[in-house]
Design goal:
30% of the residues lie in helices and 26% in strands. The protein has helices spanning 11-21, 39-43, 70-75, 78-87, 107-117, 172-179, 199-203, 239-251, 267-280, 296-305, 319-330, 386-401; strands at residues 2-7, 26-32, 52-53, 61-62, 92-94, 99-102, 123-127, 133-137, 140-145, 148-152, 154-157, 188-190, 194-196, 208-217, 220-232, 235-237, 255-260, 332-339, 347-349, 370-372, 380-381. The longest helix is centred in the C-terminal third of the chain and has 16 residues, at 386-401. The two termini are 13 Å apart. Bound molecules: flavin-adenine dinucleotide. Residues 7-13, 31-34, 39-41, 43-45, 49-50, 130-131, 158-160, 163-164, 167-168, 170, 172-173, 346-347, 374-376, 385-388, 391 line the site of flavin-adenine dinucleotide. The site of flavin-adenine dinucleotide has 41 residues, from helix 1, strand 2, helix 2, helix 6 and helix 12.
Length: 402
């Protein structure tokens, strides 16, 4: 019997344990530092768990070498992952953009089927145990924790990343793998809120719009997203912000956003629309010229941005001023001051160097019989189920490769 240890009972660790235990010659010990398994999974997708995305492709993944993920993702496609979950009894629905959720709309359904699948004679679960160190002991590994320890023949590190610290995101996985000779790239919070100079977003706090957002580093456009944009006290949030947050987090200083409130219209078309509004309601205050198209506080903010007196009647707006308002609504500039930290980020960009692992098996190229999977590695995905898809694919590959 080979003794297998998996550190971390999150998304990737649980499926790795299930796959490893399919080999009756393995005795699997799954170790989790929190009181229960799958804590982060339970909070994923706002409690709904967006467990995969049917439009998964390599371009949705990032890191120093995203191609590392190619084999795992082609072996464990979203269809195969859903077959795996279906065999465990999970029913799912696919929503817009290929996002897959449990039919129950409850992340707990995903966790439940995994927990039941872990109930096998050759799987042992140790919760509330934090692995503090791992040493090489001949060809084996020796693990220790407060008040205990054990040895094993094969080891999978599935400790996740440091994002979502309230839900258990820690540095442990990076540190344990570093102690075994691995290296790590710089870490950045991703899929998180963007902080900007507060004046403009604060005036529209709580308003959600559908918008296009361009990211500029100096004069160079470095990213673009489209979707829900939510204005907050000190910045912006929403799905479009999650999509561009990685580019912002890794770009350094001098970054700004340009918000387009009228994605399907050119600047001239917006100006024509404003001219028609001016003709229709000449006596209305300028701040109401966007009413019918945008929230009143957005209209007010755009007037201020274009340096137009919000209370002056529309009839007094010149062609130049209409053009300035149209420009403001197509390219409202927000100066970035940073991104929210790891605490509120959904994923860690960066991680243990993938060049040091074999993408066909997830085994270390440095230490035989050592494997890693999930977010601890330098692979992160876009918002929309791509991160859990990577956790399942890499975990199932690691567990099946032992
Ligand atoms: C709020 C939030 C919402 C999210 N929503 C989605 C979503 O809807 N869709 C999506 O695709 N992705 C989502 N993600 C991202 C996704 O949850 C993660 O990418 C994924 O869980 C990573 O899986 P993992 O197995 O690598 O790590 P985790 O799931 O984080 O599991 C790692 C486990 O290892 C344990 N551990 C760490 N160190 C030790 C140690 N020393 N000893 C023992 N145990 C240890 C941790 O406690 C943890 O349980 C979300 C993330 C957050 C924070």
């Amino acid at each position: 019997m080979a003794e297998v240890v998996i550190i971390g009972a999150g998304a990737s660790g649980m499926v790795a344990a299930i796959a490893a235990a399919e080999n009756g010659e393995h005795h699997v010990t799954l170790i989790e530092r929190q009181a229960r398994v799958g804590r982060k999974l339970l909070s994923s997708g706002n409690g709904r768990c967006n467990l995969t995305n049917m439009e998964t492709e390599l371009s949705r993944y990032h890191g120093a070498a995203p191609a590392f993920a190619s084999h795992a993702l082609s072996l464990w496609t979203p269809e195969k992952v859903l077959e795996f979950f279906s065999a465990l009894g999970l029913m799912t629905v696919t929503e817009y953009g290929g996002r897959v959720y449990p039919l129950s709309n409850q992340a707990s359904s995903v966790l439940d089927v995994l927990r039941f699948a872990l109930e096998k004679p050759n799987i042992e679960l140790l919760c509330g145990v934090t692995v503090e160190s791992v040493r090489r002991k001949g060809k084996r590994f020796s693990l220790s924790w407060e008040g205990g320890g054990m040895d094993c023949d094969k080891l999978i590190v599935a400790c996740g990343g440091c994002a979502g610290s309230k839900l258990g995101g820690v540095m442990d996985g990076y540190n344990l793998l570093k102690s075994l000779g691995h290296s790590r790239t710089s870490l950045y919070p991703s899929l998180t809120q963007i902080r900007t100079r507060p004046e403009i977003p604060r005036s529209m706090k709580g308003i959600k719009v559908q918008a296009g957002v361009e990211v500029f580093k100096g004069k160079n456009k470095i990213s673009f997203g489209s979707g829900d944009l939510l204005f907050a006290e000190n910045g912006v949030s929403g799905t479009v912000v999650f999509d561009i947050s990685r580019a912002v987090a890794t770009a350094g200083e001098g970054v700004s956003l340009r918000v387009d409130f009228f994605e399907t219209m050119s600047r001239d078309e917006v100006k024509d629309y404003l001219a028609r509004r001016r003709a229709a309601r000449p006596e209305a205050p300028a701040k109401e010229i966007f009413s019918g198209a945008l929230h009143s506080r957005v209209g007010l903010a755009l007037c201020k941005y274009a340096e137009i007196q919000p209370e002056s009647p529309c009839s007094q707006l010149s062609e130049v001023q209409l053009a300035a308002l149209a420009s403001a609504s197509k390219t409202l500039r927000l100066d970035v001051t940073g991104v929210s930290g790891f605490e509120s980020a959904q994923v860690t960009a960066g991680g243990i160097s993938t060049a040091e692992f074999n993408p066909m098996t997830m085994e270390s190229r440095i230490v035989p019989n050592l494997f890693a999977c999930g977010e601890v590695l330098d692979i992160d995905g876009d918002c929309g189920g791509f991160n859990l898809q990577w956790a399942w694919a890499s975990g199932l590959l690691a567990g099946g490769s032992l």
